[in-house]
Design brief:
The complex is a heterodimer of chains A (728) and B (128). Chain A has 728 residues and is of the alpha+beta class. Chain A is 54% helix and 16% strand. Chain A has a 6-stranded mixed sheet. About 6% of the residues of chain A have low confidence. Chain B has a single domain, classed as 3-Layer(aba) Sandwich (Rossmann fold). The chains are: A alpha+beta (728), B alpha/beta (128).
């Protein structure tokens, strides 16, 4: 049977691997290979409906996992059951190949699997205690005081880090990365404490690690109680480590004041806790507030309702006592429910939100495919046309609304920056104030983290390089205290974040001199102001005369620029000497959608981001020149711009080879313009960006793919990458 | 067993004290040629610039976890044959299975002794 060919070949592969195992023990690497083979096999067995095989493979899978985990005491019988299973698989495969069925018995095999893997619950408990490494053993191994000292220092550092991150987490409860940065140090402390035989520390760190693991896996959501407990836990760990330190220094060690048992109990109880519900006002309180009953009525009723068996609800108690009518109680009840609904905010897992937005993106595309379907376009049915138009408008509303769901005010980011300015100015010994504007400007939640690092670089740069020293400021007639301004606003489809300082401004001559020194440019060229400013983004450029703690390591600005460009944003600089500098970062509002020009080259379609396009033209034959040293150029309004033949870069056939027959798209990137040669412009469209997946994500010149309105797939071009490709 | 005790071992862990602990254990077992890296990303950098003979890596690290490092090593044609010993914490069985599927050479559960560590290394080298 052809149908089972693949199945049989998979099994044969495993059988021959099995034959090559020397000895009666399977090693980890082969086990890993087998586990992957079994995965493949189970899929194939599933699609071919070979359920006996599925069962056997499932059994082998759990057996192998147990073997890998060293959970099988009788290794010899483990191996022979494995052998039996593989032979059985071979039998089933062969039988299906020949007769499309298998009549043999798999139950005895399954039973031996169960007896090896299933009945281990009891033994495990026993084993766990024997497995425990004997304390003496470890102490003998590590008689190293300096290790303990290192652990104390590093452990205390880690705990400080935990505290700082916990405060961030409290502000951003959905930030899972943050949870991980808190989880990891606990994990590390636990690990080393295990080696150093510091049981109390190990156990406490283990408890806290477990709790955080539950947060990480979303079993628990971040609440102020959890933050409190972890903070208390960190304090207790710190106290334990400090005791250790005091002990080593020979100081008398007093007993720990913290009640560890109580702390552990709290951790355990919160682990089983149900998530907080919205706290509603009590029914009785509402009735009192409404003047239906008095406080005394309520107290009496509470007393009776509590004493009754079974306890009655307060409303019933009030009615039975005649303090309130059923109608009044039900009104109050409705009020109570309504109140809860009013204040209710639903916290949604960001993954669900992303999925929703993704699906809306798909819907937009499908809708546009329907609209462009030739049947729809050519039909004369007014009703159908009207419905399609309505579908379009609803879809675009839906898209707008769903994009909004993910928007958050930039306030939080700005607050972090304010804190940063304060800390940095203190470190730099400067007086710097901060003003923020447009804190309510909303940006895509996914961008908040992404823009954080570039912003930090910019703010650092402003405080460290921008703001001048108090002496210089007074000399220049400026107030002694410097000022950093953060401003956010929407402009077009972009969100703009401006970081300005009233410092010394960018020194153009200094920048040029430095760039020549560092051999980043040659000094013969003429540069415009903008071009000079942009030199500071070149890798390896640093204007600070001395390296400070904060910035000036020569990394920063170029990294910041890359991060901004990754978000399809750009940085503009404006600077006046002695007045200050402004760095304006602008980003598209959302990272999910891009406005693009659809072009055709041969049979392929490409999308050029509209933001990069400067001009479209069909050049005259005379404007095409080959210039020695610069290659092919097109004269565009007096500028000779290099020509990039897209078909050459992508290795495809184009319809036109002569620029004067084709179309030229002038695109700009990094202040350079070049001409892209395309066959035809097909139109402009908003497309939902799809990543090209892990294996293709580094393809140069292409930043993603998209499904076009007509159902075709197009690659989104990345001008910067194309420029680099064309310069090779 | 004939093992080159001079082989170059790359030790990857973000916790400096833990690196020191494992380094001490390695020295007790007779291995002295040890390089260190703070996380998977650093380790990968080191592996690209220098020839290593053996990797011992922690699981949970910032920037690049041990599993990611393992996958990157196994996906790299120049590095994929390198012996890779994963250090994991007790009770994280799903981690172990994931590492085994990703092609780990063996794993070791914290805390461990020099003897256990040596045994694991010898086992891995013997299978090569």
């Amino acid at each position: 049977m052809e149908k089972y060919g693949f199945l049989v070949s998979l099994i044969e592969g495993m059988v021959s691997d099995f034959l090559f195992i020397d000895g009666r023990e399977i090693d980890i690497i082969t086990a890993g290979k087998f586990l992957n083979n079994l995965d493949e096999l189970i899929k194939e067995a599933d699609s071919q409906n070979v359920f006996q095989l599925k069962k056997v493979v499932g059994g082998l899978n759990s057996l192998l996992e147990k073997i890998v985990l060293d959970d099988i005491d009788d290794k010899e019988s483990g191996f022979s059951v494995l052998e039996k299973g593989i032979t059985l698989m071979q039998e089933i495969g062969e039988s299906f190949k020949n007769t499309s069925g298998y009549e043999g018995d798999i139950e005895s095999f399954m039973e031996s699997i169960v007896s090896l893997t299933g009945a281990r619950v009891l033994e495990e408990v026993v084993e766990a205690s024997t497995k425990e490494v004997q304390p003496d053993e470890i102490i003998d191994e590590i008689q190293d005081e300096s290790l303990l000292r290192d652990f104390i220092i590093e452990g205390l550092e880690y705990i400080d880090e935990i505290e700082a991150n916990l405060l961030t987490l409290e502000k951003e409860p959905e930030n899972l990365d943050c949870v991980n940065t808190i989880f990891r140090p606990f994990h590390s402390i636990k690990g080393v404490a295990g080696f150093l035989n510091l049981e109390v520390i190990r156990d406490l760190a283990h408890c806290l690690e477990n709790l955080l693991d539950k947060v990480r896996s979303k079993e628990l959501s971040v609440s102020s109680q959890i933050i409190d407990i972890v903070l208390d836990g960190a304090d207790a760990l710190k106290a334990l480590i400090v005791k250790l330190q005091e002990g080593m220094e020979g100081k008398p060690v007093e007993p720990l004041e913290i009640d560890l048992a109580a702390l552990r109990k709290r951790i355990e109880s919160i682990e089983q806790d149900v998530p907080d519900t919205v706290e509603a006002k009590k029914l009785g309180t509402i009735l009192v507030e409404d003047g239906v009953i008095t406080e005394e009525n309520l107290e009496q009723a509470l007393e009776t309702s509590g004493r009754l068996i079974p306890p009655k609800k307060i409303g019933e108690a009030l009615i039975s006592k005649g303090s309130a009518t059923p109608k009044q109680v039900s009104q109050a009840l409705r009020k109570q429910v309504g109140q809860a609904a009013e204040t209710a905010v639903i916290r949604v897992n960001i993954k669900k939100l992303d999925d929703l937005i993704d699906m809306v993106g798909e819907l937009v595309i499908t809708q546009s495919m329907i609209r462009q379907n030739s049947y729809i376009l050519s039909n004369a049915n007014r009703r159908l046309n009207r419905d399609v138009a309505r579908l379009s408008s609803i879809t675009s509303e839906l898209q707008k609304t769903s994009t909004c769901l993910r928007m958050v005010p930039i306030k939080q980011t700005f607050q972090r920056m304010c804190r940063l300015v304060r800390d940095l100015s203190r470190d730099a010994g400067k007086q710097v104030g901060v003003i923020t504007e447009g804190e309510d400007t909303e940006i895509d939640k996914n961008m908040v983290e992404e823009i954080y690092n570039p912003l930090v670089h910019m703010v650092r740069n402003a405080v460290d390089h921008g703001i001048d020293s108090a002496k210089e400021r007074i000399k220049a007639g400026k107030p002694e205290k410097g000022l950093v301004q953060l401003k956010a606003f929407h402009r077009g489809g972009n969100v703009v974040i401006e970081i300005s300082d009233d410092g010394k401004g960018l020194n153009k001559d200094g920048i040029l001199k430095k760039a020549v020194e560092k051999k980043l440019i040659d000094n013969s060229q003429d540069f415009s102001d903008q071009e000079i400013f942009k030199l500071i983004f070149l890798p390896g450029f640093s204007t600070a005369a001395k390296i400070t703690n904060i910035s000036g390591r020569g990394v920063g600005m170029d990294v910041a620029k890359q991060a901004v460009e990754k978000l399809r944003g750009k940085i503009d600089i404006d600077s006046v000497i002695n007045k200050g500098s402004t760095f304006a970062l602008s980003f598209p509002l959302t990272m999910a959608i891009i406005g693009g020009m659809i072009v055709r080259v041969g049979k392929e379609r490409y999308i050029i981001p509209t933001t990069a396009i400067r001009q479209l033209l069909r050049p005259l034959e005379e404007s095409y020149n080959i210039i020695i040293g610069r290659g092919e150029t097109i004269n565009v309004m007096g500028n000779l711009l290099p020509l990039i033949r897209l078909y050459k870069i992508f290795g495809i056939e184009a319809e036109y080879k002569n620029p004067w027959e084709a179309i030229v798209v002038v695109v700009e990137s990094e202040n350079k313009s070049k001409c892209l040669l395309v066959d035809e412009i097909l139109g402009e469209e908003e497309v939902v960006i799809k990543s090209l997946g892990e294996s293709l994500k580094n393809s140069q010149g292409v930043s993603g793919g998209a499904i076009l309105g007509d159902g075709n797939v197009g690659l989104i071009l990345d001008p910067e990458g194309l420029f680099e490709l064309s310069e090779i | 067993m004939d093992i080159n005790k001079n082989m170059k071992i790359l030790l990857v862990d973000d916790f400096a004290t833990m690196r020191k602990v494992i380094k001490n254990l390695l020295k007790q077992a007779g291995y002295n040629n040890i390089s260190e890296a703070e996380d998977g990303a650093e380790a990968l950098k080191a592996l690209k610039s220098e020839k290593m003979d053996f990797i011992i890596s922690d699981w949970n690290m910032p920037n690049m976890t041990g599993l990611e490092l393992l996958k990157a090593v196994r996906a790299d044609s120049g590095l994929k044959g390198l012996p890779f010993l994963m250090v994991t914490a007790e009770g994280l069985q799903e981690n172990v299975v994931a590492a085994v599927r990703a092609g780990v050479s063996n794993y070791i559960v914290k805390p461990f002794t020099a003897d256990v560590l040596n045994e694991k290394i010898e086992k891995i080298i013997a299978k090569m």
